[in-house]
Amino acid sequence: MKLVPTLLASAALATALMAPAHAEDQKRIAIVAKALGIGFFEAAAKGAEEAAKELGDVKIIYTGPTDTTAEGQIEVINSLIAQNVDAIAISANDPDALVPSLKKAMQRGITVISWDSGVAPEGREMQLNPSSTPLIGNMIIKLAADNLPDGGDVAVLSATATATNQNAWIAAMNEVLPNYPKIKVVATVYGDDLADKSYRETQGLMQTYPDLKAIIAPTSVGIVAAAQAVEDAGKIGQINVTGLGLPSEMAGHVESGATKSFAIWNPIDLGYSAAMIAYNLATDKAEAKAGGEIPMGRMGVVKLDDNTEGAMADPFVYDKSNIEQFKSMF
Amino acid sequence: MKSRELLLAVIIVALVGLIATRFPAFARPANLANVLNDTSILIMLALGQMAVILTKCIDLSVAANLALNGMVVAMLNATFPGLPIPLLMLVALCLGAALGAVNGLMVWKLDIPPIVATLGTLTIYRGAIFVLSGGAWVNAHEMSPAFKALPRASLAGLPVLTWIAIVAILAVWVLLTRTPLGRAFYAAGGNPHAAIYTGIDVGRTRCAAYILSGALAGICGYLWVSRYAVAYVDVAGGFELDVIAACVIGGVSIAGGIGSVGGAILGALFLGVIKNALPVIDISPFWQLAISGTAIIAAVAFNARAERTKGRVILKSAETA
Fold first, then answer.
1. How far is residue A159's CA from residue A189's CA, in Å, rounded to a whole number?
2. How many angstroms away from the CA of A263 is the closest CA of chain B?
3. Domains of chain A and any CATH numbers
4. Of A81, A98, B200, B241, whose CA is between 20 and 30 Å from A22?
5. Domain named Periplasmic binding protein: which ranges (chain A) (predicted)?
6. B283 to chain A: nearest residue by CA?
7. Could you tell me which of A280, A322, A324, A318 has the C-alpha nearest to residue A299?
8. Within a 13 Å sphere around the CA of A48, how many CA atoms are in the beta-carbon half?
9. B276 CB within 8 Å of a chain A CB
10. How far separated are the first and last CA of chain A, in Å rounded?
11. A59 closest CA partner among A68, A69, A48
């Protein structure tokens, strides 16, 4: 990655020498979605606009292919290179297929970062992950604990017993468990990401642990099925179903009260942070190197690991107060 | 035949008793009603599947058919919340029957082997759900309250879902035991050549069985989606294997011609009891899979042996004659 500063420097020089009027007064940052018309990415674009307003001298170009293909994104990237934008922030449809065209962009002095869905390290300067395993692990137990001031029995409803993501999150959760002394995790069951099995496992939990106070389901099929099972059992208010889900899928269950709160990334914050990082890198205010830090406005600072990847923040918490706003987005 | 069903019933009762020693609340009537309700969809699908298997065919597309119908009615409900639920059920019934007829016509008119034809439609129907929905879910808050309420509504102490299953059981029982078509199912699978000589159109009979299976899958599509209050592409993924397993455990012969409504119900209940018991008796998920599988193989091995003995008897009597 030693090349990058040199490239950036020469890029800055090149822009200063060759580019016409807009170069100095306005930075053009392209936010590339997996596909246009997806609520999640529209929301991210909104966040990027917010960052642009805050920065003042930034123009956001929100673009993407019409369907979620790597080929479509390559065309978009080529057109952005032709427009000579200052930065590209992309959520990739394929980690490897985009590398050659993104490399070309970097050779032309364009700052390239990936966010949400990453690109292989050689195709970008840094990757912004919405969150990280330890942050998610802590968040899911915190969601349960926050609604249980007196503590109580809590069970985990996962996807399959071999699901890598879920197991990593649950392991991270167990590490921070001593910080929540009143919370007792009584069982971990597996719904295999099947609605019917998750529903039955939830019924089983309610029968086996009559004092159960919360169910943590870090999987989108599981959390929906568990909330429905709790609702059908007439245990709303007694058992709180929480975990990771999407606002569009959870809106009904938040409304019914089966779920008091749940978490997932906030696409607005993600788009905002991606734009901030792209701006700071494109203007040489920060540098993307392993172990480095890049400021991202109101979202604080992102720390990069050895793969120049960084986690934005804790998953964002959704509850009755904000679900209406987000349910139509993603 | 009767004794095998009796044996299965005894095994189920013994199983419930065994579970009750580890988790007493399982044998409470309320919980058993709950197990019956949870198994209702499996029972209905097993009845349809049994009709198909009786004719020496198989329907691998039931779960995909169910999922496609579920998605269609869920999307209809989300777009036109005013549509009455009985109308949606009728749509599901007819669309399911039509999808079943596609299987039936391929087997009847094109002579495609049933396993291949329905393997094809399984994939096509799943793909159709994706094309239709664009991969998006239909969620609880997009469904109308009436849409979600029907299977849960209580009627004389049991949920409507259970009652629908009971009506389906009675209808299929009458069809199989009291109508020419029902008897033709047995004849077409038991001995297709002899059936032709008695004037039964074997292809048409098979097609009718597929339509029955499809219609039941259609109704189940609505029931599934409204029970779990969510519709997505992978709804009931792999469920066709449970349905076939229920039939086989219930003594329905894969070779065709043998099977009864009672057997299919008991087979489904056997799986239903196991599925509902495993979460409460605190067994590791890896063992759960192994136990389910072992139970299925044991039942099938038992049935296979019972069938083989019967074949030998005929040979022996032929030799001595």
1. 8
2. 17
3. 3-131+266-326 (3.40.50.2300), 133-264 (3.40.50.2300)
4. A98
5. 29-285
6. A189
7. A280
8. 29
9. yes
10. 35
11. A48
